[in-house]
Design goal:
By secondary structure, the protein is an alpha/beta fold. It is about 45% helix and about 10% strand. The protein is built from 11 helices and 10 strands. The strands form 3 sheets. It has a 4-stranded parallel β-sheet with strand order 2-1-3-4, covered by helices on one side. A 4-stranded parallel β-sheet has the order 8-7-9-10, sandwiched between helices. A two-stranded antiparallel sheet has the order 5-6. α2 packs across α6. It starts with a helix and ends with a helix. Bound molecules: zinc ion. The site of zinc ion has 5 residues, from loops.
Length: about 325
């Protein structure tokens, strides 16, 4: 077992030695906060260089702490792409202290993004990680608002394929400014990615038609962009700690909510203890499923975004269907 692990590691090291360094010579140094966006940027940069992924699998963007070496990467970067204060809240201060303003790109503020307010009505428990969100209903609106509004926006923007396309288009233009020599490559990669996103979108839309009306509940209200784009019927969220089992009274309350909302499925995420989910579902008609909005289990790289989106659709169809 150990030997097998070691040889897999060595293979990985050799693969890295063979392919990465020559790609990176002269390429701009780009840091991206979360894996799905890193994947899109890696696609734009294919054949030129490899962006750095800042937040690994064991951290959630809402609660990151950055190591000194991560902070050094930020300070040297030609570009830092992140969602913004509403998502990677602890990053905001560090970015403003270490990254020149012209090199930091808050994707939530890009013009042309589809953006939604956070939803926190009775059926949507306050977003588990952050107290920044205001008490809004759910209104779609076009971006172009100020920083203040950005704080009250649902930051999980990458789960809309329209926004994924927008991020790609922006990165093509932006990286071409930083590294004009490779502008043609960025542009060709961008075209290919946009076509791939369109195919993905059509495929997922078709696949989800079968489960569009079926009510479900999530543990982390991260999916509004996905739900709105594909017309899904999410009926609420429950805030549950990912590590601790809720007390008996809270469990009873949550079970009543699941029954009252007639939820067919309750979706947790990779960081949740499976025991918490199965305890909650006892005595209800709901099934348990798992959604992974960050692709926590996937290797980083150009395919991660596409796999993450397909996995979301698969998980929904599997549990609801
Ligand atoms: Zn979140």
């Amino acid at each position: 077992m150990q030997l097998r692990k070691l040889s897999a590691k060595l293979r990985g090291v050799f693969a890295c030695l063979l392919c990465w360094p020559w790609l990176s010579i002269g390429a701009p140094e780009v840091v991206v906060s979360i894996k799905p966006v890193h994947s899109l940027i890696a696609g734009v940069m294919a054949g030129v260089g490899t962006p750095e992924l800042l937040i690994g699998n064991t951290q959630t963007p809402h609660e990151i702490s950055l190591s000194p070496s991560a902070v050094r990467k930020l300070s040297r970067a030609d570009r830092v792409y992140w969602i913004g204060q509403a998502l990677e809240t602890p990053m905001a201060k560090i970015v403003s202290a270490t990254v020149e303003e012209s090199k930091s790109v808050e994707l939530l503020l890009l013009p042309g993004m589809v953006s939604l307010w956070t939803r926190e009505s009775g059926l949507w428990d306050a977003h588990a990680h952050s107290d920044r969100h205001g008490d809004h209903g759910r209104f779609p609106h076009q971006q172009g608002d100020n920083q203040n509004n950005a704080r009250n926006m649902d930051p999980h923007i990458w789960l809309s394929p329209v926004n994924a396309g927008r991020i790609v288009q922006f990165a093509v233009q932006d990286l071409s400014r930083v590294d004009a020599e490779n502008a043609d490559k960025y542009s060709r990669n961008g075209e290919a990615l946009l076509a791939r996103i369109q195919t993905l979108d059509l495929e997922i839309g078709k696949r989800l038609l079968a489960v569009n009306d079926l009510p479900y509940i999530v543990f982390h209200d991260a999916y509004a962009y996905f739900e709105r784009h594909y017309g899904l019927n999410a009926v609420g969220s429950l805030s549950v700690s990912s590590e601790r089992m809720p007390g008996m009274r809270r469990i009873q309350l949550l079970r009543d909510r699941i029954k009252q909302l007639n939820a067919r499925c309750v979706f947790s995420e990779p960081q949740f203890e499976p025991g918490v989910v199965s305890t909650l579902l006892e005595g209800t008609q709901a099934h348990g499923g798992r959604l992974d909005p960050l692709g926590a289990d996937l290797p980083p790289g150009p395919d991660a975004y596409f796999l993450m989106m397909r996995n979301l659709a698969d998980a929904l169809v599997e549990c609801l269907g």
